[in-house]
Amino acid sequence: MKELLLGLRLLLGSGRGNRARFVLMAVGGSLGVCCLAIVLAIPGIIAAQDGRIAGRQPVVPRDQSGQSIRDGFPLTLSRTDPYGAAPLTRIFIARGTKSIEPPPGLKSIPRDGQVIVSPHLHRLLRAEPALAQRFPGKEAGLIGAQGLARADEIVAYVGMTRAELPDGYPVKQWGTDYAPDPTVEASTLDIVRFTMAAVVLLPLAVFLSVCARLSAAERTRRLAALRLLGLSVKGTQRVNAAETVAAAGVGAVLGLGEYEVVNQLVSRIGLPGFKWYLADGALSASTLLVCLVGCPALAWFVGRASARKAAENPLAVRRSAVEKPPSRWGFLPLTAGMGILTGYCIAGATGHAPTSTALSSVLVPSAVILVGAGLALSLPALSQYLARRTARSTQSLSLSLAMRRNEAEPGGALRVATGLVLLVFVASLAQGVLIELNQVSKNTSPVQRYDVLLEQTDESQQHALENLPDLRAHIVVVQPERGGDAATATRANAVVATCTQLRRAVRAVEGCVDGRPLWLWDSTQVQESIRAGDAVSYAMRGGRQTHDLKLTVPHQKVRFHDPVDAQVISTGAILVPPSMVPRNTRPQSATLILISDSDFQTVGRVLDGIGGAAPTAIVLPQGLQVLALQQITVVKTLLAVGMILGLIIGVAAYLVAATDRAVERRPQVTALALLGARARTLRAVQVVQVVLPLAVGLVLAVVVGKMAESSYLVTGGGAVFWDGGGVPLLLACALGVLVVAAVGALPLVGRRIDPELIRRD
C-alpha cells in the first residue's frame, strides 16, 4: 500500500511535465477504451434487434396431435420482398372471433382495409406514392419502436378478411425464442467478430501499451533512483504500476463517457445500412467490467513489466548501459503463422482447396493471430539487423547516426511502427472478407427473373401481372403430371409462350414457328433423359374439374442459348402455343416467370406492380436474396467502422509514440547540436530513424497480409482466390503511411538548444 501511495505522490508532485504526461496517458487510454466499447457493443446491438424480430413472430395454436387450430383464431401471413437492397416486410392479418394481444408495437390488430406502417415506410410512402400498391388499404397508424428491429426497418401490418387469407396461419400469441431471419447469421457474425478483433483489438492492444509507457526512459531512470535508495524490487514495480493504473482508470471512465456521446450521436444519425435505437447501444455489465477492470489490469501488468529493468539492475539504467539485443523468439509465431498461410496458398494454387471448414475455421484465425503477434515481436530484431548492416556500409552522416541509434535502441521501432504495420496487415485481411461478400452480392445477369406460383393467383391477377409496363417478357412454365411410375416418367416442362415472347425471354432463338409444339434445345445445358416421341401429360384445372393435356415430345427443335447467369428455360422443354391450352382452364402446377431489366429502379417498379396486382402471392426474385443483401450491407458497414477505428488507433499510436520518443531523445539531440550538427541533419536523422523500420514492417505486412487474404478466400468456398486489384491500393496506403510518418517526424526536432538537458543528464 505504501508503494501505491508513493506512486500517486510522485504523480502529483513531480512537476508540470509529469502531470502533462499523465493527462496524455489518460486521454490516450480514453480513446482506446472508447474504441473497445464500440467493438464490444456491436454484438449487443445485433442481439437486441434480433430479439424484437423474434418478439413479433406468430405462435401457431395446435391440438394434441400437432395439427393447427384455425377456428376463431386470427390468421396471419408474412411476405418479404426487395425494396432496392433492403427488405420490405408485409404482415397480413385477418381478425378472428377470439381476442389475442396485438403484435408488439401495435395498439390493436388492424381491421380489414387498415394498414399500420413503420415510420420509415410512412416517409417512403409520402415520397413514392406508387409504393402504396403493395399495401391494399389505407394507412391507419404507425408501428412503435418495440415492434421494429431498427428505426429504418420497412414493415407494414395489413388488415384483411379471412376469405382473403386462405393460406394464412392461425396465431394465438406473439413471440418466439429465436429470429427466423436474424440481422446477421451466426456464421457470418463469427467472421465479423474475428475480423473486428483483428482490425481493432490488435492495434488497440499496441496503442494502450504505448500510452502506458509514455516517457519510458525518464520514468525508468527515476525508478532506478528509487531502487538505489533502498526500495525493494516489487515495491519499485508497484510504484510504476500505481501511476500507470491511475492513468488507465481515469482513461477508462473518460472513454466510457466518450462512448456515450458517440452512441447518442450515431444512433440518431445512423450508419449506411445499419441503424439502431439509443437503448440498444447501452453497454452491458460484462463490457463495463472489461473496460473498467480489464484496461487498468492491462496497465498494471505493462507497468510492472516496464519497471522490471530498473528494479533488477538500477546501476545499468543510471549509467545508460548498452541494452540487451532483442529476443529472436519473436520470429517463432511469425514463422508458424506464415507456414500455415503458405500451405493454404499452395493448396489454392494447385487446385486442392480444402473442403474441411471445421479445421480451416481454427487454422486460419490462429495463423492470423500468430502472424499479427509475430509482426509486432519481430520488428525490433529486424530493425536492429537492418540498422547494423546499413551503418557499416553507408557513407552518409545522417544515415549512419540514425542507424546507430536504431541499433542501440531497437525497441523504439516497436513502439513507433507497430500500430501502423498491424493496420496495413489487417486492412488486407478485411479486403478479403469484402471480396468474398461481393461474390455473393454481385449481380452479373443483365435480366431479372421473378417466379410467381400460378396457383396463388386468379385469372385476373395473372393478366395484370403479364401486362406490367416494365416487363421484357413473360412465360408460363407448366410442370408435368407425375405418372404411376415417377422414376421413369418423362419430366419435360411445357413453356406456354409465343415465338415473340420466347425471343424476348432467351437469346439466339433459331427455328421457331408459331402455332405448333416445338422441342426447346440448348446444347450448352446439361441434357435430360428426354427423347422425341415420349408422351407427357399436364394437369389442367377448369372450375372444379381436372383435365389432362397430353402432348408428345416433338421432333422439330428450337435452338436457343440461355446463359447460366440468366437462365430462364431449361433445355428439353416443350414450347406450347397459348392457343393449344384448353379455354377456361389453368395449369394445376405452374410458375409464371416475369422478366425485366436488372437495374434497381426497374426491379423496384416491377415489385411494386406485382404487389399491387397480387399482394399475397409468393414472389421469388431469382438471384436477388434481399435478406442476404441486407446482411452484406451490415457486414460492410461494420468492417468500415472497424477500419476507421483501426486507422484512428494506428495513427494515434504513431503520433503518441513518435512524439514521446522525440522528447526522450532531447538530450542526445542537444549533444549533437552542441557538437555542430546542423538542424537539417538532425531532422534527416529523425526521419530516417522512424521511416526505415516502418518501411520494413510495412513491406512485411503487405506480403503476409496478402497471404492471409488469399488463405481466407481459399477456405471461403468462393470462385476468387487471388485478388491482384487490391495490391496497388495496399501499396498506396503503405506509401501514404510512410509519407505521413516522415512529415510527422520533421517538427520533432526543435530549434532551441537547451544545455540544461545535458547538465541534468
Keyword list:
single chain; 761 residues; alpha+beta; 9-stranded mixed β-sheet; 6-stranded mixed β-sheet; 21 helices; 20 strands; elongated
Estimated structural class: alpha+beta
Radius of gyration: 35 Å
Q: What is the overall silhouette?
A: elongated
Q: Tally of extended strands?
A: 20
Helical coverage, percent range: 40-55%
| Strand line-up across the major sheet | 12-16-13-17-11-10-19-9-20
What is the beta-strand fraction?
5-15%
Low-confidence stretches: 484-488
Topology:
Layout: H1 2-13, H2 16-55, E1 58-59, E2 75-83, E3 86-94, E4 114-117, H3 119-127, E5 138-142, E6 154-160, E7 169-170, E8 173-174, H4 186-212, H5 216-228, H6 233-269, H7 285-306, H8 308-312, H9 314-318, H10 331-349, H11 357-393, H12 397-408, H13 411-441, E9 447-453, H14 459-466, E10 473-478, E11 494-496, H15 499-505, E12 507-510, E13 518-521, E14 535-542, E15 545-552, E16 557-561, E17 574-576, E18 586-587, E19 590-597, H16 600-613, E20 619-621, H17 626-664, H18 666-674, H19 679-715, H20 726-745, H21 756-760
Parallel strand pairs: 3-6, 4-5, 11-17, 13-16
Antiparallel strand pairs: 1-8, 2-3, 2-7, 4-6, 9-19, 9-20, 10-11, 10-19, 12-16, 13-17, 14-15, 14-18
Give a verbal description of the structure.
The longest helix has 40 residues, at 16-55. α10 crosses α11 (357-393). 54% of the residues lie in helices and 13% in strands. The protein is elongated and about 105 Å long. Strands 12-16-13-17-11-10-19-9-20 form a nine-stranded mixed β-sheet. It is α+β, with helices and mostly antiparallel strands. The protein starts with a helix and ends with a helix. It is built from 21 helices and 20 strands.
